[in-house]
Design brief:
Shape: globular
Structural class: alpha/beta
Distance between the termini: 32 Å
Number of strands: 5
Radius of gyration: 15 Å
Order of helices and strands: EHEHHEHHEHEHH
Helix content: 40-55%
Strand content: 15-25%
Strand order of the largest sheet: 3-2-1-4-5
Length: 165
């Protein structure tokens, strides 16, 4: 429970350059508003539970990177099928305990059982800022899925997408 915060929400697997932009914008807003920046993330990432995706960054490393970006603290939800079955309303009630003055997410953010919650639903209760995707030099969106694909055949390219700015 917090009296005020700015919250960045996401799986943040890899804490790649796109994630860094979401978290960085939340850190900046929190400083401007004079409240803590909370990163709300999941262990393991939802794609690891539902699609068996490789985890890019183990939790301790993820938390270290989040701390380096200037977040005040992190909430780590233990993501499993029981957690995934929670309703969108339950998730929003949990967020309300952080008293978010702003929430920062990526455009494709979904939450609640079956992904029934989206940015519009979140914005019906909170002030939400959607952070645009980050693109690499060739114009492709930087994403955890893309990085997973590169890890096997082009680790140098994957490393560039994971690098801190």
């Amino acid at each position: 429970d917090l009296p005020a915060s700015v919250v960045a929400i996401g799986a943040f697997d890899g804490v790649h350059r796109g994630h860094q932009k979401v978290i960085g914008s939340a850190v900046e807003a929190a400083r401007r508003l004079g409240c803590p920046c909370v990163v709300y993330t999941f262990d393991v990432p939802p794609k690891a539970v539902f699609a068996g995706a490789q985890v890019i960054t183990p939790l301790p490393e993820k938390l270290r990177k989040i701390g380096q970006l200037g977040a005040s603290c992190a909430v780590v939800a233990q993501f499993d099928r029981a957690y995934a079955a929670r309703s969108a309303a339950d998730f929003m009630a949990e967020l309300a305990r952080l008293s978010p003055r702003e929430i920062r997410v990526g455009a494709d953010f979904r939450f609640g059982a079956g992904g029934t919650g989206d940015v519009a639903l979140l914005a019906s209760r909170f002030t939400v800022r959607v952070v645009d995707a980050v693109r690499c030099e060739r114009g492709e969106v930087i994403s955890s899925s893309r990085i997973r694909g590169l890890l096997g055949h082009d680790p140098a390219a994957a490393s560039q997408l994971l690098a801190c700015d």
